[in-house]
Amino acid sequence: MPQKKAVPRRPRADAARNRDRLIDTAKAMFTEGVADVRLEEVARRAGVGIGTLYRHFPTRDALIEAVYRTEVETLAHAATQLAATRPTVEALRDWMHLFVDYIEKKQLIAPALNTIVGGADAVYARSGELVKKAIKDLVERAVADGHIQPDLDPIDLLRALIGVANVASGAGWKASAKRLVDILVAGSRPGA
Fold first, then answer.
1. Distance between CA 106 and CA 102 in Å, rounded?
2. pTM, two decimal places
3. Where are the CATH 1.10.357.10 domain residues in the chain?
4. What CATH architecture does domain 65-187 belong to?
């Protein structure tokens, strides 16, 4: 008689909530500027025991990576949601504004990411794939609609925004980057 394959069990609802709470708490600590996030403090603030934290994240690196991946996955998922609910150019513009927010969060967590044993290259590579696919899909929709020039390279839009974030580290860089989004989108329109 053939053996049945074991189907992975979905985590219990309370376990999933605990995991999400731990990620949200660690993210909030990074946002507060806590560069050296201590696992014990994350568990305390999340209202769970340290054993619960270690069941989900056996190392500090695993927690840092989960926080970052969650941000990237949220950004990528937003592209799908915007594409389903907004006109093509508005979806692209709105997503690019979210990308600016993502850059800000990435700048806050970057010091911790850079402490990951073995480096963060694999984490960055996967996130880069998701982000590139998201903007590529949004641009292709806008091009197909005739609202964006067909020769526009979606990666050029990302490079422009990343460049602003890397050059301008002052308090107003984020507002400047969001204004740049509007300029980039307007300049990408046919006949612009």
1. 6
2. 0.83
3. 65-187
4. Orthogonal Bundle (1.10)
